[in-house]
């Protein structure tokens, strides 16, 4: 923008998340709790075009009850013993993220620049403070409504991210990505 001012201002931003499975294979097939009424394609590991094509073929066969040699390999409810250690490590890492409850920082609103956010301690509460691009201040409850992890400010995306289970929230607290279904609550 400094070299080509005609480009104009940024109107929107894009970001994505790559979902990885424990064994590196996508999840393609029936979601079992739905009794065959819901099918999914997920855990693409950044190969959405490949898995979208493969998933379309596989799910068409599953719906028409045509045998497919890939069905068992990509079954969303498969269990692989070799994935147990990575699964255990990921869950220990999730548990480790709850340590943030013991970190404290006094209010930093006076130091925040536009577009910055921070988690602070106010009495017994963890508060997510942000000064948006317009200079307006927001105070939100820093506790993720999913399972009580603390969100952290993602400077690059301008979002509040929960390191425990991956929920993401806008700087105003709206849910961008689950598993959280409820927004971050405003603090008064």
User: Approximately how much beta-strand content do the residues carry?
Assistant: 15-25%
Number of helices: 3
Q: Please state the structural category.
A: alpha+beta
What general form does the structure show?
Answer: globular
Distance between the termini: 38 Å
Strand tally = 9
Listing every helix as H and every strand as E from the N terminus to the C terminus, the arrangement reads: EEHHHEEEEEEE
Q: Give the rounded overall mean pLDDT.
A: 85
Helix % is 10-25%
Q: Give the strand line-up of the largest sheet.
A: 6-7-8-9
**Low-pLDDT windows of residues:** none
- Largest beta-sheet details: 4 strands, antiparallel
Cα-atom radius of gyration? 21 Å
What does this structure look like?
- The chain is of the alpha+beta class.
- 18% of the residues lie in helices and 21% in strands.
- It has helices spanning 48-63, 71-74, 84-97, and strands at 27-30, 39-42, 116-122, 125-131, 137-141, 151-154, 159-162, 168-169, 175-177.
- The strands form three sheets. The chain has a four-stranded antiparallel sheet, with no helix packed on it.
- β3 and β4 form a beta hairpin.
How is this structure best summarized?
The chain is α+β, with helices and mostly antiparallel strands. It has helices spanning 48-63, 71-74, 84-97; strands at 27-30, 39-42, 116-122, 125-131, 137-141, 151-154, 159-162, 168-169, 175-177.
